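Sequence in, structure out.
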Amino acid sequence: MTVHDAPVGRPDESSTSESLELLTDDEEWWTVVPVDATSDERMTQWISVERDGLCNLEEWR
């Protein structure tokens, strides 16, 4: 399962390089990786977050 949310930033910033993708197999742990990462980068540029650590971005904003 994947979830993709549009990045938030200044209008003059390139959003492509900042786009992140949330990946999960069990909906307990989510892994965040850059959308444009290569297969090697996906193995080294990530962070995992427990489900309770995630929040609704619309509410947070």
